[in-house]
Amino acid sequence: MVAAALREDGPVAHAGASLGIADVSHAFDLDGAVLPVLNHVSLDVAPGEFVALLGPSGCGKSTLLRLVAGLEPPRRGALRENGQPIKGPHPSRVVVFQDPTLLPWRTVWDNVALGPQAQGTLKSQRQRVDETLELVGLSQFAKAYPHQLSGGMAQRVALARALVNDPSILILDEPLGKLDSLTRLTMQSELVALWQRKGFTAILVTHDVEEALFLATRVVIFSDRPASVKADFAVDLPYPRHRGDPRLSGLRHESLRLLGLDASW
Fold it and tell me: How far apart are CA 239 and CA 137, in angstroms?
């Protein structure tokens, strides 16, 4: 397990929280039938780790993120942030979804300011909103509206809206999944840079093996639904990472093997 972000200039300090997932099982009630989606999942995530979750589509990865976010309780087991039970949503845990879900009638600045405004702290946090927009490179677009943004820019607004709350755990549910390939590669590098600068704990669901290996300090691979942990390994490589690194290539092949997708590689 890698608890520090490995960089060429050394590890960063961490503002992230620890996350404990202990023997979690979950199911949905569908038309009177019970559909199991998680099966005795246990994970311990150290403060400042970047953990990527891989697994077959529909196996339960996004459901696990919802439980971590506190959007619903598990049927069985427990989740803890810094040792405290997760009993519901909290500003320390913020979700970034595949769709930016920006409010079209609000400017970029006003979208980013939603959190402080909802908490009644906007008057004292205006500079914080400005700083976060600068952090994601969108200061010049503060007065723009969502329809005036590219897909990558809209997703940066979504990240800024999350980061303005200084989350201890950033929950990423395929946040780059709908971007074109070139924008996605750029955003991957930007996401690593934001994580290194802020030190939060990151939990990412992705279907892209290369993305998981490029971003994460650790990769967890799940089985088919109901999801259980099939493999859990460290990506013990320094940042910045290079996509042609033969060590990444080896981890990619092993990941595909564990996912049952290595036959053509």
Answer: 21
Q: What fold characterizes domain 1-92+167-265?
A: Rossmann fold (3.40.50)
125-156: pLDDT as tens digits? 899 999 999 988 899 999 999 999 999 999 99
Residue 65 to residue 172: CA distance in whole angstroms: 8
CB atoms within 10 A of CB 169: 24
For residue 7, the cross-strand partners are 239
Domain spans, the chain:
1-92+167-265, 102-166
pLDDT digits (tens, 9 = 90+) for 31-87: 888 999 999 999 999 999 999 999 998 899 999 999 999 999 999 999 999 999 999
Cis peptide before 56 (omega within 30 of 0): no
With a CB cutoff of 8 Å and minimum separation 6, the contacts of 208 are: none
Per DSSP (E only), the strands in the chain are 19-30, 33-45, 50-54, 76-81, 84-85, 93-96, 169-173, 201-205, 218-222, 229-234
Question: If 0-12 CB within 10 Å is exposed, 13-18 middle and 19+ buried, where does residue 33 land?
Answer: exposed
